[in-house]
Amino acid sequence: MSNRYPPESAGRRMIDDVPKAVPEERVSDIRKRLFEKANDFETLNYVYIIDRKGKLAGVLSLKDVFQKPEESKVKDLMVKDVIRARPHTDQERVAILALKYNLKSVPVVDKEDIFLGVVPSDVILGILHSENVEDILRFAGISKRDVILNKTLQFPVSVLAKIRLPWLIFGLLGGLFAAKIVTFFEGPLKVNFVLAAFIPLIVYMADAVGVQAQTLFIRNLALDSRLDARKYFLKEIKISLVIALILGAFLALISFLWFGLLNIGIILGVSLFLTVICACLIAVLVPWLLQGLKKDPAIGSGPFATIVRDVLTLVIYFSVASLMLKFF
Amino acid sequence: MSNRYPPESAGRRMIDDVPKAVPEERVSDIRKRLFEKANDFETLNYVYIIDRKGKLAGVLSLKDVFQKPEESKVKDLMVKDVIRARPHTDQERVAILALKYNLKSVPVVDKEDIFLGVVPSDVILGILHSENVEDILRFAGISKRDVILNKTLQFPVSVLAKIRLPWLIFGLLGGLFAAKIVTFFEGPLKVNFVLAAFIPLIVYMADAVGVQAQTLFIRNLALDSRLDARKYFLKEIKISLVIALILGAFLALISFLWFGLLNIGIILGVSLFLTVICACLIAVLVPWLLQGLKKDPAIGSGPFATIVRDVLTLVIYFSVASLMLKFF
User: Fold this and answer.
1) Which of the residues A11, A190, B71, B310 has the least number of beta carbons within 10 Å of its own beta carbon?
2) What is the ipTM of this complex?
3) CATH classification (class only), B2-126
4) What does the pLDDT look like over A234-246, one tens digit per residue?
5) How far apart, in Å, are the Cα atoms of B47 and each of A121, B55, B78?
6) Residue ranges per structural domain of chain B
C-alpha cells in the first residue's frame, strides 16, 4: 500500500498498528485491549479515536487511559483538535509538525479525513536526522549520504574519492569558465593590477552573503509552508540593501586608506554593493523558483549555486571596473 | 540541581519524573503504580528498574507491563544491558545514542551507576533539531539561531542585518589581507597575467575540497566519539592524494588545451595539487585540535575556516608560480 505515495512522503513512512478505539467505547475497553495485545502495537503513545466512517475523531493519551475513571466515555475525554498530515505531505514537514506541537506521533488522514496511519516517534527522529544530514552534506557537494555517514574508515579510498569528486570536477569546469571571463578583462586589469588582487575578496564576499541569504530562506520555507514568498523577497531586498551599503562603504574606505587609491576604492565599493545585492536576490529567487517547480528548494544550495554566483560576480566586478576606469 | 552540569549536557536536559520500580517488585505492582499516578510522569515509554543502592539495574518496556503475567517478577523480565549516558555527556551525543539504538528515552547515571534521570523523547527530538540547525547556520556564519529561525518576516530589517553582518565584516578584513598578499606577487602576475585569471578557480577549489573534508570529519566525530582520529587522518591523506592528483592533472590538461600555455598548465596543476592536499589536512587537523581542547569541533567550520584556507591557498599558489617561473 505504501508505494502508492511518493518517496519521502508521510504515506510512505506511516504505520498502521497503533491502538485505536471508537468514540462510544469506555476507558475500560481500551485498557482491556492494551492488556490483550500491547505487543502487537508498534507505538504506544496515543490511542487514536476513529468514528464509524473511519474518520479520525480525536486522540487520547496513554496517561488518560491509566488515570481516568474506567467508566468514562472515550468521546468525553478525547482531544478533538488533532494535528494531522496528508499522505502526500513531505516527511520533513511531518517532523517539523511533531517538533512544533511537541507530538510523539503524527496521524495521517486522506482528504475525507479517513484515518490512514501514524508516523511514529522513532521514524520522526530518523527523518529529522536524515533531512538535516542531507542539507549539511549538500552544502559540501556530497549526495550519497547513506554510504559515507559514520563509515569513512570502513570504505576503500577509491569509493570515498569517487563520492567526493563529481561536484569538484563540475566546480573545476566552472572555475575554468570564470578564468576565461577574467582574461577578457586583461586590459583594465593590467593597467590597475590591484583590481586583480581584490578578486578573491569580491568573490568570497558574494559567496558569504549568498550562502547566508539562501540558508535563511530555505529554513524559513521548510518551517513554514505558507510563507509569503513575495513579502519575504521584499524584506530580503531591504536587508540586502542595508548589508550591501555597509560592506561597500567599509571596503571603499579601508581600501582607500590602505592602498591609497581613491578610484580603486570607489570601484571596489560600488562593485561589492552590486554583487552583494545580486547574491541576495539569486539566493531567494533560485529556491523560490525551485519550489514553484515542485523541486526541493535545498537543491539550489551547494556547489552549483556557488559557481553561478562566482561567474556572475566576476562579470559585475569587471564591468563596473571597465566602465568606471573610463571616467577616472 | 540541573545547574551543576554544563550547558547542553545530558545532566541539564534530564527529568526525574519517570516510572520506576525495584527488581523485587512484580508486574502487578507497576501496573498499580501507573493507575495511581500516570499523570505525574512526564514520559511513559519505559519503567526504569533501580536497585536498593540507587543503581540502574535494568529497564522494562510499557508493552511488557501490559502483556506479561501479573505475578512475574520485574528482575526476570527486565532488560539488563541498558544504553546509558553520563550527566556530562554532550546533548548531541545523547540524541545520537537514541537514534543509533532506536530509543525513545536515554537514562542518565553517574560514575557509580546511580540513576539520576532520563532525557525524554521530545527533548531528544528538540536537541537533534537545534544541533543540526546550529550546524547549518554556522556554515552561513550566523550564530543567534533562536532569533531568526522561521521568523524573518517578524523582525525589523535592522535586527536581521545586525545578525548577518559580524562574520561578513570579519570576512571582508580577511579578504583585504588576501588582497595585500596578492599585491606582493605583482611581478610574476604582471608577466603572466593569466595567473591572475585563475585566482578564483584555485581559491574556489580549495574551499570546495576543504568544506567536504571538514563536513565529513565533523560528522564522523559526532556519530562516533571513539573515532580513531589518527587512522582517520591517514585515510584522509590517502583520499586527498587521489583527489588532488585527479583534479591537478585535469586542470593542467584543460588549461593547457584551452589557453595553450604549457608552463601555466603545469603551475596550475601543481598548485591545485598542493592546495587541495593542504585544504584536506587543515579540514581534519583544526576540528581534531578543537576536540582535543574540549571545544565543539564544528566551531572550526564556517567563515573563519574559509578565510584561513583562502589566505593559505593564495600563498601556496603564488609561491609555486614564482618559484616555477624562474625555471621556465
Assistant:
1) B71
2) 0.81
3) alpha beta
4) 999 999 999 999 9
5) 18, 14, 9
6) 2-126, 148-325
pLDDT digit string, tens, across residues A28-65: 999 999 988 888 888 888 999 999 999 999 999 998 99
Show residues of chain B in contact with A98, CB under 8 Å: 125
- Cβ proximity of B70 and B27 under 8 Å: yes
**Is B15's Cβ below 8 Å from some Cβ in A?**
no
Reported as a single tens digit per residue, the pLDDT across B272-288 is: 999 999 999 998 888 88
Report the pLDDT value the prediction gives residue B199, as an integer from 0 to 100: 92
Sheet (strand A20-21) strand order: A20-21, A46-50, A56-61
Class assignment of domain B148-325? Answer: mainly alpha
Question: Is A67 in CB contact (< 8 Å) with chain B?
Answer: yes
Identical fold, A2-127 and A175-325? no
Report pLDDT for A23.
Answer: 96
Q: How far is B46 from chain A (nearest CA, A)?
A: 11
Candidate CATH numbers 1.10.10.60, 3.40.190.10, 1.10.357.20, 3.80.30.20; the one for domain A175-325: 1.10.357.20
Instruction: Find the DSSP H helices in chain B.
Output: 10-13, 27-37, 62-67, 74-77, 91-100, 121-139, 145-148, 157-184, 186-191, 194-197, 199-223, 229-259, 262-292, 303-325
A2-127 CATH: 3.10.580.10
Interface test with A, best of B31, B93, B152, B217 (most A CBs within 10 A): B152
A163 has a chain B CB within 8 A of its CB: no
Q: Which residues of B touch A204 (CB under 8 A)?
A: 171, 174-175, 178, 203, 306-307, 310
Confidence of residue B2 (pLDDT cuts 50, 70, 90): low
Do strands A46-50 and A20-21 pair parallel, antiparallel, or not at all (unpaired)?
Answer: parallel
Report the residue of chain B nearest A175, measured CA to CA. B201
The minimal CB distance from A139 to the residues B160, B189, B215 is found for B215
Strand-strand pairing, B20-21 and A115-119: unpaired
Nearest CA in chain A to B203: A200
Whether the CB-CB separation of B107 and B54 falls below 8 Å is answered with: no
